[in-house]
Design goal:
Structural class: alpha/beta
Number of strands: 8
Shape: elongated
EC number: 3.6.5.4
Mean pLDDT: 90
Enzyme class: hydrolase
Family: Belongs to the GTP-binding SRP family. SRP54 subfamily.
GO biological process, one term: SRP-dependent cotranslational protein targeting to membrane
Keywords: Cytoplasm, GTP-binding, Hydrolase, Nucleotide-binding, Ribonucleoprotein, RNA-binding, Signal recognition particle
Number of helices: 11
Bound molecules: guanosine-5'-diphosphate
Largest sheet: 8 strands, mixed
Length: about 300
């Protein structure tokens, strides 16, 4: 991810290196190239506009510093502004004062929620927590089974509707039962069995729809999550912003997880979502294995892009 963006920015800065001082025209030309590189990487138009506006203003008013040549100064400004649009400081999960901490996952189908549930569960378990996974995606065929597989790999138990209980996966692989009831019962189970974290996997549709959003909001209202993580496929390009805004409005998520950051797509989602929704990116999912999971650090991501 970001290979092209990274190359383009690097070559833009290379052109500046020979200059002793930068004229306004030099800065404008540089900002134009940065704008094009960001737009070609699918970064959302309003984010690009704000970003380039700030970079231009700061570059024009930058003090000539003894330590940095003009090119380095522009790189420093771009770096700082990249960190800012990626959310500034990284923060950890909000853990409840009175466990269990309830974490709800939301996002489109195929975004990587179920995979992320396993990764997060494994990561928390390795830190000494005792998570419980809750299978409240009763929409997608075999989603419950998939979560059970993921849970087994992570060494984390899964609360799922089973025959005679909340509904069962029939021969079609589709679970019946009410996801809100399952989610609530999952949290109660975690409390009674002393799990300190509950991770609720919810249904996603291929596109944003009102029924999906209502179901997610109902699960939220029934379980009062400490953290609602919106999982977004970093490869979805310009659709990222509309999708993120719909979920921000529909479920008021509290953090973002970027999935499929290992892909070779242009990465605009990664660079737009935190800014557009005002919510921080907490984690990155970087592959299909449960260990392909990272705490997201805006400064490290910015350095990677400008490397
Ligand atoms: P859900 O519908 O949101 O629960 O999505 P899934 O967790 O089922 O993921 C959809 C597909 O994307 C599966 O084939 C996963 O193996 C794959 N996937 C999930 N996360 C990643 C990731 O970070 N990188 C890659 N390359 N594939 C992923």
């Amino acid at each position: 991810m970001f290979a092209t963006l990274s190359d383009r920015l690097t070559s833009t800065f290379k052109n500046l290196r020979t200059k002793g001082r930068l004229s306004e025209a030099d800065i404008d030309a540089t900002v134009r190239e940065i704008r094009r590189a960001l737009l070609d990487a699918d970064v959302a138009v309003p984010v690009v506009r704000e970003f380039t506006g700030t970079v231009r203003e700061r570059a024009l008013s930058a003090e000539v510093s003894g330590a940095l040549n003009p090119a380095q100064q522009v790189v420093k400004i771009v770096n700082e502004e990249l960190v800012a649009i990626l959310g500034g400081e990284s923060r950890g999960l909000n853990l409840a004062k009175n466990p269990p901490t309830v974490i709800m996952l939301a996002g489109l189908q195929g975004a990587g929620k179920t995979t992320l549930a396993g990764k997060l569960a494994l990561n928390l378990r390795q830190q000494g927590h005792t998570p419980l996974l809750v299978a409240a995606d009763l929409q997608r065929p075999n989603a419950v089974t998939q979560l059970k597989v993921v849970g087994e790999r992570a060494g984390v138990p899964v609360y799922a509707p089973d025959a005679g209980n909340q509904g069962a996966e029939g021969q079609s692989g589709v679970s019946t039962g009410d996801p809100v009831t399952v989610a609530r019962a999952g949290v109660e189970t975690a409390r009674s069995r002393q799990h300190d974290v509950v991770i609720i996997d919810t249904a996603g549709r291929l596109g944003v729809d009102a029924e999906l959003m209502q179901q997610a909001a109902d699960i939220r209202d029934a379980t009062s999550p400490d953290e609602i993580l919106f999982v977004i496929d970093a490869m979805i390009g310009q659709d990222a912003v509309a999708t993120a805004q719909a979920f921000a409005e529909g479920v008021s998520f509290t953090g973002v997880v970027l999935s499929k950051l290992d892909g070779d797509a242009r990465g605009g989602a990664a660079l737009s979502v935190a800014r557009v929704t005002g919510q921080p990116i907490l984690f990155a999912s970087t592959g299909e294995k449960l260990t392909d999971f990272e705490v997201f650090h805006p400064d490290r991501m910015a350095s990677r892009i400008l490397d």
